[in-house]
Amino acid sequence: MFRTAVLAALIAFPAMASAQDAQVDKPPQRIRSVTLTGDQKCPASSGNEIVVCSTLDQPYRIPKALREDKPIAAQNQSWVNRAATMDQVGRVAGGLPDTCSAVGTGGQSGCFMQRNQAYAAERRASATESNTQP
């Protein structure tokens, strides 16, 4: 029984290999990435091109259910993010420009920027809330 299966596999293997070689003469000359909107269909590829399609509502390969939108905990952040946070804290404490600090001359420009960023974050949050509700 085992010998028969091995013999059949050895006979079929060269036939499968030649079938694979026959399908691919040369690599594609062009790879085209297409972003689809609405109910558009992915265009057909021609002889020497590969077409990769994605939609605007699902730009990532990770399913929505598995994506995490929560902020990353401090102990899990990279050293670069930690250093940037410490730098920003030092800038605010020193009253440097664009820091929203009562100390120093450049604090008011930073307060305006922080309010603007908070407003933009609120708008993004309300937009994603309205998109996720059925």
Helices and strands in order:
Blueprint: H1 2-23, E1 30-36, E2 49-55, H2 79-94, H3 107-132
Parallel strand pairs: 1-2
List keywords for this structure.
134 residues, 48% helix, mainly alpha, 2 strands, two-stranded parallel ribbon, 3 helices
How would you portray this structure in words?
The protein starts with a helix and ends with a helix. It has helices spanning about 1-25, 80-95, 105-130; strands spanning about 30-35, 50-55. Among the domains are: about 25-60, no CATH class; about 90-134. It contains three helices and two strands. The mean pLDDT is about 75. Helix content is about 50%, strand content about 10%. The chain is mainly α and about 130 residues long. It has a two-stranded parallel sheet with strand order 1-2.
Count of individual beta strands: 2
SSE-based structural type: mainly alpha
Distance between the termini: 58 Å
What kind of sheet is the major sheet? Answer: 2 strands, parallel
Give the % helix: 40-55%
Give the C-alpha Rg: 28 Å
Number of helices: 3
Low-confidence stretches: none
Main sheet: which strands, in order across?
1-2
What is the arithmetic mean of pLDDT? 76
Principal-axes shape call = elongated
Secondary-structure element string: HEEHH
Strand content: 5-15%
In short:
By secondary structure, this protein is mainly alpha-helical.
